[in-house]
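Field log, afternoon session.

UNIT: design team B
ACTIVITY: writing a sequence onto a fixed backbone
BACKBONE:
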């Protein structure tokens, strides 16, 4: 990829650059809250078609798939981004309007710019430019955009895996996520589970509270125990510390003159590969056994109901495993070599947040990394932005990754 090959890539990226930036701006200007991705999905499909993808389609859930076909003699590379974004919140908190897609001071600003619409444009264009440049590749370059990533239970990716990725058995060599990495190679993250803990009291009139059992009072020692548990959780030198945080508390019936007979908290639990599904829920069961009278509390994984823009409905639990791809894995070493050949010299990192890579790495057993121009510090912030310089470098990088994985040569 050095020398003449790199100069050739420069020429194609130069020719496409203005269109790529325009596409990224249009993505930011297109609101796509989880479950409302139809318009942005249509935009992405139209761009893929215009760029000459060999195949463009959506599955029944509304996930977008674009394929640049190889000659059939190599492994495939799977690129993945999510099409949804979180709410911009208070628009007055933004230095630039969240949906205007403004370019200022070398950055594209707006909701989703770093998480992950800038990277979406880079992945979509990089695959097309491999074809346009006539770079031969043995495997397919599969570019996918999923719905409903932000809720955190991998539903869109799970649907894509079951309906689309099964058509590539044993042939996908590497998954590359568009999640923010600042042009480094990210190797994984802690797992995530959301738990719903309820204490069960007895309703009564608040003028005579002794006639009821206040579920909020039953919950108070549970909240304190969760805080104590969080302080004692294990830590990994690379992935960081396990954590537990109460994120919501509800009491019902919630009327001023009634003692609440139910109190519910949500707990966000981040965990390491050394922990597992059962051990995480056992910790909460043990807390309830110590802190709440028998029969007065329950714990379960939170359930989330999804409805895609195509009308498909499904309810699944909020759980994703931890994953960590070995930096010595052969595909990872080839990727790092290809990026180093471009002068990028990436380091290895990990995300604080979770990604759909947990499904591809753990459940599908596919080597999974992240590579993107986005920066994690801007994700979900009113300062959401992506560097155009990094974005340009990521287009080169994604082209190099494609050929390193699919066995291509210039």
């Amino acid at each position: 990829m050095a020398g003449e090959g790199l100069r050739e890539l420069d020429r194609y990226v130069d020719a496409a650059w203005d269109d790529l930036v325009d596409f990224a701006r249009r993505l930011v200007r297109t609101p796509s809250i989880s479950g409302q991705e139809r318009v942005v999905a249509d935009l992405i499909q139209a761009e893929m078609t215009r760029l000459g993808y060999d195949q463009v389609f959506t599955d029944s859930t509304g996930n977008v798939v674009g394929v640049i076909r190889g000659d059939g003699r190599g492994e495939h590379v799977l690129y993945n981004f999510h099409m949804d974004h979180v709410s911009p919140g208070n628009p007055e908190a933004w230095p630039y309007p969240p949906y205007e897609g403004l370019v200022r001071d070398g950055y594209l600003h707006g909701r989703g710019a770093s998480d992950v619409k800038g990277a979406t444009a880079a992945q979509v264009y990089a695959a097309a430019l491999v074809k346009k440049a006539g770079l031969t590749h043995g495997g397919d370059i599969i570019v996918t955009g999923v719905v409903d990533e932000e809720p955190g239970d991998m539903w869109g990716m799970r649907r894509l895996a079951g309906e689309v990725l099964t058509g590539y058995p044993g042939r996908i060599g590497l998954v590359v996520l568009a999640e923010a990495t600042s042009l480094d190679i990210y190797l994984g993250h802690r797992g995530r589970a959301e738990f719903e803990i309820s204490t069960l009291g007895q309703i009564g009139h608040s003028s005579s509270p002794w006639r009821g059992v206040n579920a909020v009072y039953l919950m108070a020692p549970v909240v304190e125990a969760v805080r104590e548990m969080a302080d004692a959780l294990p830590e990994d030198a690379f992935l960081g510390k396990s954590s537990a945080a109460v994120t919501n508390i509800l009491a019902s019936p919630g009327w001023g003159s009634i003692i609440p007979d139910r109190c519910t908290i949500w707990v966000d639990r981040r965990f390491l590969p050394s922990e597992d599904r059962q051990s995480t829920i056992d910790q909460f069961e043990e807390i309830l056994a110590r802190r709440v009278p028998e029969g007065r509390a329950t714990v379960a994984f939170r359930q989330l109901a999804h409805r895609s823009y195509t009308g498909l409905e499904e309810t699944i639990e909020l759980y994703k495993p931890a994953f960590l791809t070995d930096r010595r894995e052969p595909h990872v070493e080839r990727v790092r070599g290809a990026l180093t050949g471009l002068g990028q010299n990436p380091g290895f990192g990990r995300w604080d947040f979770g990604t759909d890579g947990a499904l591809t790495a753990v459940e599908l057993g596919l080597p999974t990394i992240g590579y993107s121009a986005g920066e994690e510090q801007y994700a979900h912030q009113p300062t959401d932005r992506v560097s155009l310089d990094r974005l340009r470098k990521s287009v080169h990088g994604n082209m190099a990754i494609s050929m390193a994985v699919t066995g291509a040569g210039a």
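LOG NOTE: The two ends are 7 Å apart (CA to CA).
NEXT ACTIVITY: expression trials, pending approval
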